[in-house]
C-alpha cells in the first residue's frame, strides 16, 4: 500500500506546484496569444500594404487609360478638323474651277455667237452681192437681148428693103 501511495503521490502534485504549472501554462498561452496577435497583425499589415500597392497601381493604370483616352480624343478631333479643312479647301477649289468653267463656257458661247453673227453677215453680204450681180446680169442680158432683137430686126428690115 505504501508503494501504491508513493506512486499516487508521485502522480499527484501539490497546490503550489499546480499553481506554478498553471502559471506556466497561462504564460505559455499568453505568449502564443501574443505570437498569434503579432502574426495576425503582420499578415493584416502585409495584406493592407499589398492592397495599398494594388490601389496605387490601379490608380496609375486608371490615369494612364484616362491619358490615353484624352490623347485619342485629341487626335481624333485634330484629324476631324484637318479633314474638315481639307474638305472645305477641296470644295472652294471645286467652286473656283466651276466658276472658271462657267466663265470659259460663257466666253465660248460669246465667241460662237460672234462667229455666227459674222457668218450671218458674210452670208447676207454674199447674198446681197449675188442679188446685185444677178440684177446686173439680168440688165446686161436684157440689153444684149434688146440689142440682138434690134440687130435682127435691122438686118431683117435691111433684107426686106433689099427685096422690095
From TrEMBL:
It comes from the Eukaryota. Coiled coil: none annotated. Keywords: Coiled coil, Membrane, Mitochondrion, Transmembrane, Transmembrane helix. It is found in: Mitochondrion membrane. The keyword Transmembrane helix applies. The gene is MCUR1. Pfam families: CCDC90-like. This is Mitochondrial calcium uniporter regulator 1. GO terms for cellular component: mitochondrial inner membrane. One of its GO terms (biological process) is calcium import into the mitochondrion. The chain crosses the membrane at residues 144-163. The lineage of its organism: Eukaryota, Metazoa, Chordata, Craniata, Vertebrata. Belongs to the CCDC90 family.
Amino acid at each position: 500500500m505504501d508503494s501504491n501511495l508513493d506512486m499516487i503521490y508521485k502522480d499527484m502534485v501539490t497546490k503550489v506546484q499546480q499553481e506554478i504549472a498553471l502559471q506556466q501554462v497561462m504564460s505559455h498561452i499568453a505568449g502564443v496569444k501574443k505570437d498569434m496577435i503579432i502574426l495576425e497583425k503582420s499578415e493584416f499589415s502585409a495584406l493592407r500594404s499589398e492592397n495599398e500597392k494594388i490601389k496605387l497601381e490601379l490608380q496609375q493604370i486608371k490615369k494612364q487609360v484616362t491619358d490615353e483616352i484624352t490623347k485619342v480624343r485629341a487626335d481624333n478631333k485634330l484629324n476631324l478638323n484637318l479633314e474638315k479643312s481639307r474638305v472645305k479647301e477641296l470644295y472652294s477649289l471645286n467652286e473656283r474651277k466651276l466658276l472658271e468653267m462657267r466663265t470659259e463656257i460663257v466666253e465660248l458661247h460669246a465667241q460662237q455667237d460672234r462667229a455666227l453673227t459674222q457668218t450671218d453677215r458674210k452670208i447676207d453680204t454674199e447674198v446681197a452681192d449675188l442679188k446685185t450681180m444677178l440684177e446686173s446680169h439680168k440688165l446686161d442680158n436684157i440689153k444684149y437681148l434688146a440689142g440682138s432683137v434690134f440687130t435682127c430686126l435691122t438686118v431683117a428690115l435691111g433684107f426686106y428693103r433689099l427685096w422690095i
